[in-house]
Amino acid sequence: MNIKKKILCIGAGYVGGPSMAMIAYKCPDYRVTVVDISHERIDAWNSSELPVYEPGLDEIVRKTRGKNLFFARDIENQIKENDIIFVSVNTPTKMFGTGAGMAADLQYWEKTARQILEHSRSSKIVIEKSTLPVKTALAMERILSSAKGKISFEVLSNPEFMAEGTAMNDLENPDRILIGSRETKSGLKARAELSDIYARWIPKDKIITSNIWSSELSKLVANAFLAQRVSSINAVSALCEKADADVTEVARAVGMDSRIGSKFLNASIGFGGSCFKKDILNLVYLCNYYGLPEVASYWESVVKINEYQQERFIANILSSMFNTLAGKKICILGFAFKADTGDTRESPAIHITHRLLAEHAQVIISDPKALKNAAFDLKDENGEITYTEDPYRAASGCHALALLTDWNLYRKLDYKKIYKSMIKPAFLFDGRNILDHKKCFKIGFNVYPIGKPALSHFKVSPDA
Ligand code: NAD
Ligand code: UDX
């Protein structure tokens, strides 16, 4: 087949791998190559066990890999050979120096820019796919503009809005594709070239364009709004517990207002994932940097409520279980930050496990996809931890279940069988409100949901 475009993506992570697999799948006449500094990651992409678990990803990689999708180690040559370069490297929170704990750490990003500059022998379009602070493109342009000779670079912003667990569907049917560019002749030409790629499978009215700064900022703002909804409903869940209201009923009534909408109103142990916290902190840093402390503290409160919600969950376990967890066995159902992913980055389960171990509980962790990552996250813990994929084996002999991830399989477990295998009185803390609480209560559990009255068999309340 005649190759019409040669596309490179630098960064073979949760975004680079799936998003490039989708482009290769939808555009068989484009050649798509993904590179990474981690050879281990590249080798995994070339193996039968992909480094990222995403429903539907295996199938698309199987259909394209070796045909028009390639995972390669030789970054320098690939920069030379390709005309369109997506950059999808990680942009974590900076942990040192100015802005530590808040600002984005742009070292990986800048290294990539310098590498592109060093190895390019022809003009290229460079596309920011990573989530970046507003005005990053300016720094990229400044680095790339030091190119010698006739080579020129056009920098575009094309933030990725996919969510993990639903990435393949989000990439195939996105709500929108956003492309930001300079509004110069060459900027608009590059913008049109990138639009053409997406137009292969995405309706034109969903491909929106903007100036480059609006595009960069829109990504941070979209994540901040989503996280804010979770913190809003979680803040309400605390009030519901005091006022005998039911947060699911409140969310339903509120969400039916079409101006508010029903999505992202599930009360939980708090949001996790590699994006929300880092992107809000980055937004907070930017607001402070631009002299807007009131705006900064508004967004910071979203993160504070998230931390509060996790602490509330722990406090609830402790007070319901007679204020001591020492020597008790607690089974954690789900360690991933959400269902349908093995990703545990910023998962509330990490903090909750540390806190349970600090109370000298024994923790048994179960998860269908995230046990390897869980063991890595907890490698420095000295407390007693066991990893067991089978939820029935994990729960057997435990004093309590703490459901932390909304995996569908947990809805379908035989809780009668589990109850029988546990130490009595048996406790169930549903950190996702996904179980049938009345049914579990009838089985014999003392049930503690989020934002709803507890269902307890004890005659005397723990506060009495
Ligand atoms: P990731 O850590 O999974 O992947 C990033 C990859 O980049 C790593 O494999 C790393 O080895 C590689 N890398 C770093 N520096 C490099 C260099 N100089 N050359 C080559 N490779 C290099 O991260 P991710 O989750 O894919 O996120 C990437 C970006 O996309 C971040 O900015 C993130 O905020 C954003 N984003 C993530 C998601 C998500 O759901 N994970 C969604 C939207 C946007
Ligand atoms: C998010 C954004 O949704 C996505 O657009 C962006 O590109 C990357 O960041 P992701 O973090 O993968 O995606 O998952 P998301 O579905 O947004 O969930 C984030 C966290 O919020 C999870 O821990 C999830 O369990 C939690 N959540 C979500 C709730 O607690 N309640 C909800 O109602 C929704």
Q: What ions, cofactors and ligands are bound?
A: nicotinamide-adenine-dinucleotide, uridine-5'-diphosphate-xylopyranose
Structural class: alpha/beta
CATH architecture of the largest domain: 3-Layer(aba) Sandwich
What do we call the CATH homologous superfamily of the largest domain? Answer: NAD(P)-binding Rossmann-like Domain
> Strand order across the biggest sheet?
3-2-1-4-5-6
- The tally of domains stands at 2
Gap from first CA to last CA: 76 Å
Q: What oligomeric state do these chains adopt? A: single chain
Q: What is the share of helical residues? A: 40-55%
Largest sheet: 6 strands, parallel
Radius of gyration: 24 Å
Amount of beta strand: 5-15%
CATH topology-level name of the largest domain = Rossmann fold
Q: Which CATH class of the largest domain is shown? A: Alpha Beta
Shape: elongated
Overall pLDDT confidence: 96
Short description:
The protein is an alpha/beta fold and 464 residues long. It has helices at residues 16-26, 39-45, 57-64, 75-81, 107-119, 136-144, 167-172, 185-198, 212-243, 247-255, 276-289, 293-320, 348-358, 371-377, 391-395, 415-421, 437-443; strands spanning 5-10, 30-35, 69-72, 84-87, 124-128, 153-157, 177-181, 207-211, 329-333, 362-366, 385-387, 400-403, 427-430, 446-448.
